Amino acid sequence: MDSTTSKAAGGSSVGSLRPSLSETMGKWAFRLPIIFMVVFFALPMALTVVFSVFERTMFWMEPGFSLLAYENFFFSARLNNFLSSMYYSLIAVAICFVLGFPIAVFLRKSVPQVAQHRVVLLFILPFMVSEVIRVFALRPVLQRNGLVNETLMDLGLISEPITALLYSHTGVIIGEVMSFLPFIVFSGFLAMEAVPKYIFEVCDDLGAGTVRRFIDVILPLAAPGIFAGCVFIFVNGLGVALLPNILGGAGAVNAGLIATQAIAALDFPLAMAVSAIMMATLMGLLYIGHRLFDLTKILSPIN
Q1: In the chain, how many domains are there?
Q2: Would you place residue 182 in the very low, low, confident or very high pLDDT band (cuts 50, 70, 90)?
Q3: Is residue 16 part of a domain?
Q4: Closest residue by Cα to residue 217 from 243, 197, 187, 245
Q5: In this structure, is residue 234 part of a structural domain?
Q6: DSSP 29-70
Q7: Tell me: the pLDDT tens digits for 109-148?
Q8: pTM (2 d.p.)
Q9: What is the rounded CA–CA span in Å between residue 5 and residue 8?
């Protein structure tokens, strides 16, 4: 009897422990992402701003409050390079939108739902290759005797090679488009996935033309996804130093290359200041986009 009673008591104690353990695990399942974001996102961002006002030493920096790094950025050619890189990144964003978003619309409208995610996966596959390899692979394609020039000359479209395709701003724009085009396809597809397919049927029944349907229906519904993809391309175009290093000429400088050059010169406060300015640019764009389009709608179905 005693043994039976003890077993029952032991079983009840184990049963009483199980809910508490599962509840604890459930709480941590929600806390871990928050901790991760604080430790690896919010804290590094805050430290970047703090370090940007530190005073530079010969090999590192020391605590203090100095705006010299920001002065070196805003009152030098670095600001002009930064604004120039913003301009060329906007061109890359526009090209990516013109090429990529129609693909997302086509996937949602014309590809069977069972195969849509498989097709999207094809656009993600290039990212399984190192970015260095992808960017370097463009050089034999764009160079003076590369694939593009040879093809155009064989077709009789040009009489001499186009030298502006490589080691120029044009080369950087081409690199940005080739590197970041899948992001506009993916974010556009996510936005279009929230649009029911009967929307297209209703437009057809009402006799709406392709242009009218695109401007009045598709663009407003997919605006959050389009904006998110465009911001991602824009910010990466500013920050990836590989592109101007490999494909750009002497004047092709972006924020990532400015920060890299500052680190090479052991001017760490300047590198932190450039990073802080890029973060402020990103946050400002996200705030504007959220106020205009409510970016949370990207993953929200339309009722």
Answers
A1: 1
A2: confident
A3: no
A4: 197
A5: yes
A6: HHHHHHHHHIIIIIHHHHHHHHHTTSEE-SSSEES----HHH
A7: 888 878 888 888 888 787 788 888 888 888 889 988 888 9
A8: 0.82
A9: 5
